[in-house]
Amino acid sequence: MRIVKWLGVLIVIASLLFGNWQLARLQGRIDEMALTGFGSGVTSFLKEPYGFDNELWFSKDGYTPHYAEHIIDPIDGKEKLIMADPHTYQGVVLYNLADKRIEWEVKVPGSTINNPHTARVLMEDVDGFGDAGDIYCCDMDQRIIVFDRATQEIKKAITISAVGGQWDPNWLHEACLSVDPVPHLILTDYNGPDGYRYAKYRISDGVLAWHKGDFGHPAKVCPIVGAHASLHTPDYGGDYLICSNEFHGSVWEIKDSDGTWTWARPRDRQGPSLVSPHAAIRMGRVENVGWYTVVATESGGGLMAIHFMGAPIWGIGNRAGKSVGGDSVYTASVHGLSEITHVFPTLDGRIGIVDWGGLNRANVVIINEIPQKQHVSWQLEHEIATTNDYSFLEHVPVADWDETHIVIKNVGGGGNQLQWKVLGSLLQSSAYTGGDARQEEWIEEKAEATLADGDSATYTLSRPYQYILVMYWSKEMDNHTKVSLYLDHVRK
Fold first, then answer.
1. I need a labelling partner for 391 at 20 to 30 A (CA). Which of 9, 85, 144, 248 fits?
2. Which 3 state secondary structure label does DSSP give 213?
3. Are 138 and 144 contacting, i.e. CB atoms less than 8 angstroms apart?
4. Nearest C-alpha neighbor of 159 from the set 134, 182, 187, 181
5. Closest CA to 219 of 186, 195, 268
6. Long-range contacts for 94-101 (Cβ within 8 Å, ≥24 apart)?
7. What is the arithmetic mean of pLDDT over 60-87?
8. Which residues contact 252 (CB under 8 A, 6 or more apart)?
9. Where do the domains of the chain lie?
């Protein structure tokens, strides 16, 4: 009986201790939620719907940042997030990552357009513009403004329409300090006219060094870190990546010196399926154009890494949207992502994103590990004319994918027939040139087949090839047609 009595006492003591521990744990979570607006427990929650290992860095009711940048604050040397919210708070937020609190915020003036879409901290003094620690962005009245951190007062305001009458922006979307030693700003006008969609503005006298309009709806300006290095340079000769935020979107690499573009994907609808991309970053310092570009797309919560020819390397989400009666319709992804407005590098080299799938909020999330299960699509050819001989655009890398689905369509419209076949190579280094002696290294995976005008065919392969070639040609001599070719990759 005594043993039973003492066991009862021990159980009561253990229950009290466990209850106190649970209470302390609950109080700790409440305290953290007060600081972050969401709490660390949400990170575990997000791992399920997001479907990949991540860290939640910012998520607060009523705040929908469109842009985030991980910085070391030049004023106190601490790690912070500088964020811009153009649609809900309509201001700038500086978030202390160590203390998990908003330490500085300010709304931007104006009422004409939605801004700011970006906001940046000056890392050093810029002659005629601002001091280290100041914050600059675009306001809602087509101005570039610089905030004094101490007073939150606007210490400088630039009105672009006053620049010699050259340019009256319709939606001044972005202002980013250029890489030029002479202080300039790279500007984007989201709804700008031809020839004035993005430009380089000299701060000292307000002169436009150049202005361009090669693509519509230019979004954020993303500098290429390490551009023009003497070895292992990560650029194609340009300095910035700018996305065309259109339904059939694209990413462009732009030179600082004259605004010309040096690389773009997709081109003429050939390349990755980027539905309304808003930002991109260049990753890697690899030789022989081995680096890759990570592009964030608004529709479907898409994030896709592409190599120099545009083929996907990996992807998260990227469910396509659709156009209904001229209006875009976005969709969410199986990972729980719904609209990614920005992608950015962390100071320790990871990839961060801003996703608008939160409850009356946008989440700033850091990716710790790319999910193994993936599904990405792209277009290899778009209405390309056939010839009398074999044609193919490039060697498609497929070794990292469990399945590749090929969709080919004869879109000629003239009643002409299309011949096609699929070759595969098991070698890691191989090239098909038609007359090359190594042609025997390629295996005929899919025998020749014929497509009538307007018909399409789908073929799935899962054999362990390194590369494939989809070859096509006119069935009848000089009786040409056009072909569109789509590829869909799956990693199970």
1. 248
2. coil
3. yes
4. 187
5. 186
6. 94/121, 94/135, 95/57, 95/58, 97/57, 99/35, 100/32, 100/35, 100/36, 101/35, 101/36
7. 98
8. 214, 215, 241, 242, 243, 244, 261, 263, 264
9. 41-371, 377-491
List, in sequence order, every residue forming a beta bridge with 272; answer none if it has no partner. 378
Residues 90 and 110: beta-carbon distance below 8 Å: no
Q: What is the pLDDT of residues 134-177, one digit of tens each?
A: 999 999 999 999 999 999 999 999 998 756 567 788 999 999 99
Question: Does the bond joining 266 to the residue before it have cis omega, within 30 degrees of 0?
Answer: yes
Q: What angle do CA 74, 75, 81 make, to 5 degrees?
A: 65
The confidence score (pLDDT) of residue 480 equals 87
Nearest C-alpha neighbor of 198 from the set 220, 226, 183: 220
Taking the C-alpha atoms of residue 488 and residue 492, their distance in angstroms, rounded to an integer, is 13
Q: Tokens standing for 403?
A: 């399945």
CATH architecture, range 377-491: Sandwich (2.60)
In 3D, which of 249, 120, 126, 245 has the Cα closest to residue 188?
A: 245
* Tokens describing residue 304: 């896709």
Q: Please state, in angstroms and rounded to a whole number, the distance separating the CA atoms of residues 313 and 430.
A: 19
Rounded to whole angstroms, how far apart are CA atoms 322 and 325? Answer: 10
Structure tokens at 49: 């719907």
Residue 227 pLDDT greater than 70, yes or no: yes
The DSSP letter of residue 270 is B
R_g of the chain computed on alpha carbons: 27
Q: Residue ranges of the alpha helices (H) in 175-310?
A: none
Q: Is the pLDDT of residue 418 over 50?
A: yes
- Higher-confidence residue of 385 and 183: namely 183
Per-residue DSSP letter, 386: P
41-371: CATH topology is Neuraminidase (2.120.10)
How far the first Cα of the chain sits from its last, in Å, is 60
Segment among 208-222, 252-266, 300-314 with least mean pLDDT: 300-314
Strands ordered across the beta sheet of 361-367: 54-58, 361-367, 351-358, 340-345
Cβ pair 476, 402 in contact under 8 A:
no
The answer to whether the CB of 367 falls within 8 A of the CB of 352 is yes
Strand order in the sheet with 467-474: 396-397, 467-474, 418-425, 442-451
For residue 214 the two structure tokens come to 């090669």
- Find all residues with CB under 8 Å of 168, minimum gap 6, and list them: 160, 161
User: What H or E segment, with its residue span, contains residue 33?
Assistant: helix 2-36
Q: What pLDDT score does 270 carry?
A: 83
